[in-house]
């Protein structure tokens, strides 16, 4: 993406609290080797989200014939597990 108008991104990650909402893309960055979008938020200002969690992600490699994307892909399940572990660790005060 260039420096001009970067357009809009819709959050598509199945577990993200802002799923299906669209936000203006302000910048793109690489964070820990992952493409990240800086989006213009509402009341909270800007926020970052992985490009793969938006409709600007590369096409899903197993997507065929225009059918729906599988919601329980390995990547989604792994991310869900990481979020659940993070929440559980915060609740119990455990550092992994």
Question: What's the SSE blueprint?
Answer:
Blueprint (H helix, E strand, L loop, with lengths): L7 E3 L11 E10 L2 E7 L5 E5 L23 H19 L4
Antiparallel strand pairs: 1-2, 2-3, 3-4
Features of the shown structure:
96 residues, alpha+beta, SH3 type barrels, 2 domains, four-stranded antiparallel β-sheet, 4 strands
Number of alpha- plus pi-helical segments: 1
CATH architecture of the largest domain: Roll
The average pLDDT value, as a whole number, equals 83
User: Can you list the strand order of the major beta sheet?
Assistant: 1-2-3-4
What overall form do the CA principal axes indicate? globular
Pick out the low-confidence regions: none
Task: Tell me the number of strands.
Answer: 4
Q: CATH top level of the largest domain? A: Mainly Beta
Give a short synopsis of this structure.
This protein is α+β, with helices and mostly antiparallel strands and 96 residues long. Helices cover 20% and strands 26% of the residues.
């Amino acid at each position: 993406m260039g420096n001009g108008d970067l357009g809009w991104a819709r959050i598509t990650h199945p577990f993200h609290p802002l799923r299906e909402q669209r936000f203006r893309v302000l910048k793109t960055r690489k964070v820990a080797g992952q493409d990240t979008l800086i989006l213009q938020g509402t009341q909270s200002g800007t926020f970052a989200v992985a490009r793969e969690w938006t409709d600007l992600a590369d096409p899903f490699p197993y997507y065929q014939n225009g059918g729906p994307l599988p919601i329980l892909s390995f990547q989604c399940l792994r991310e869900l597990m990481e979020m659940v572990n993070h929440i559980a660790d915060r609740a119990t005060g455990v550092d992994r």
